Amino acid sequence: MNDTKGSRVPSTPGCPRIVKVIGTNVSITWTQPDSDGGSKITGYLVIYATASGSRSIPQQITVGVTTTAKLDKSITRGTSYVFAVAAKNARGFGDFSTLSEEVEIPSDIHGISFVVLL
C-alpha cells in the first residue's frame, strides 16, 4: 500500500532546455523539482504546442523518470514548437514549468523523437 498521508504534489520542474535538434531527434532536458512533495517522483508529463499558438490544444506525452518517447505523426514540418513539463508523484501532477525556447523543426523530416535526459 502506498502511504501518501502528508504528501503533496511535486513542485515545478525547471524550464525544458533544447539540447539539440538532429534530423528527426529533439533532445530536451530539465532540472528536477526542488521538492518531490514528500513522495517519490514517478514520472513527467511533457506538453508541446506550436510556438505561434495556432494549435488550439497542446499535445502531450507521459514519460517515466528516465525514458525515451517517440512521436511520429503529430509534428508539422517547418513549424516551431515550445515545451513544458510537470512532475508526478503518488498525489498527482504538480504545476507545469515555464515554456521552453522555441525550436524549429526542419521542413525535410517526417516526425520527431524526444530524448528525455535527466
Secondary-structure-derived class: mainly beta
Strand content: 35-45%
Low-pLDDT runs: 66-70
- The total number of structural domains is 1
Largest sheet entry: 5 strands, antiparallel
> What share of residues is helical?
under 10%
* Mean pLDDT score: 77
CATH topology: Immunoglobulin-like
Euclidean distance between termini CA atoms: 28 Å
- From the structure provided, what is the oligomeric state, counting identical versus distinct chains? single chain
Shape: elongated
Evaluate the radius of gyration. Answer: 15 Å
Tally of strands: 9
Q: Element order, helices and strands?
A: EEEEEEEEE
- Kindly provide the name of the CATH class: Mainly Beta
Give the CATH H-level superfamily: Immunoglobulins
Summarize this structure briefly.
The chain is mostly beta strands and 118 residues long.
Topology:
Layout: E1 17-22, E2 25-29, E3 43-50, E4 59-63, E5 68-71, E6 80-89, E7 92-93, E8 103-104, E9 112-117
Parallel strand pairs: 2-9
Antiparallel strand pairs: 1-2, 3-4, 3-6, 5-9, 6-7, 6-8
Q: What does this molecule look like?
A:
The model is unreliable at 66-70 (pLDDT under 50). Helices cover 0% and strands 41% of the residues. The chain has one domain: Immunoglobulins (Immunoglobulin-like, Sandwich), CATH 2.60.40.10. The two termini are 28 Å apart. The chain has strands at residues 17-22, 25-29, 43-50, 59-63, 68-71, 80-89, 92-93, 103-104, 112-117. The chain is elongated, with a radius of gyration of 15 Å. It is mainly beta and 118 residues long. The chain contains no helices and nine strands. Strands 3, 4, 6, 7 and 8 form a five-stranded antiparallel sheet that branches. It has a four-stranded mixed sheet with strand order 1-2-9-5, with no helix packed on it. Strand 1 and strand 2 form a beta hairpin.
